Automatic annotation (TrEMBL):
GO terms of molecular function: monoatomic cation transmembrane transporter activity
Topological relation to the membrane, as annotated: Multi-pass membrane protein
Protein family: Belongs to the CPA3 antiporters (TC 2.A.63) subunit E family.
Superkingdom of the source species: Bacteria
Keyword tags: Cell membrane, Membrane, Transmembrane, Transmembrane helix
InterPro entries recorded: Cation_antiport_E
Lineage of producing organism: Bacteria, Pseudomonadati, Pseudomonadota, Alphaproteobacteria, Hyphomicrobiales
Compartments in which it is found: Cell membrane
GO cellular component, one term: plasma membrane
Pfam entry (one): MNHE
NCBIfam families: PRK08965.1-4 (NF006520)
Name this polypeptide is given: Na+/H+ antiporter subunit E
PANTHER family, alphabetized: NA(+)/H(+) ANTIPORTER SUBUNIT E1 (PTHR34584), NA(+)_H(+) ANTIPORTER SUBUNIT E1 (PTHR34584:SF1)
Amino acid sequence: MSRILPHPLLSAGLGLTWLLLNAPPTPGNVLLAILVALIVPTVMRALRPRPVRVRAPGTLARLIVIVLYDMVRSNIDVARIILGLRRGERRTGFVSIPLDLREPLGLAILSIILTGTPGTLWVQYDSDTGRLLLHVLDDTGGDKWVRRVKDRYERPLMEIFP
């Protein structure tokens, strides 16, 4: 059974998602859902991802709270900018941030945090130099964004994924 369904929950989720996205269920859609549910997890098994070990669950919980807070605050800030409540104050720009984090999973989570937060976008990462190019909707200049990313997100991620 594990050879046919290496990840049964992933298979079920993919199949159901396929059917939900392609409603109403027709015989063809059901067949495609079954094929996707069987093929994708098998292909993913070939990638053999490393097991994830979270070393600081308390830091992870704290990071989740910080990210949720920052997302709510950013939503409000972006809404003010879009609605014109902060006229003349918006300065979009690019910020180059030197990262010490090299763990691929930590970098992936950092990219999700930064891109998922309204007003910021992960543009480019140079793995040779460790520099991140970030686009921000409200560029305050100076090192404010560098310190924010390094202190609020990178340091906790380095504790969680050393």
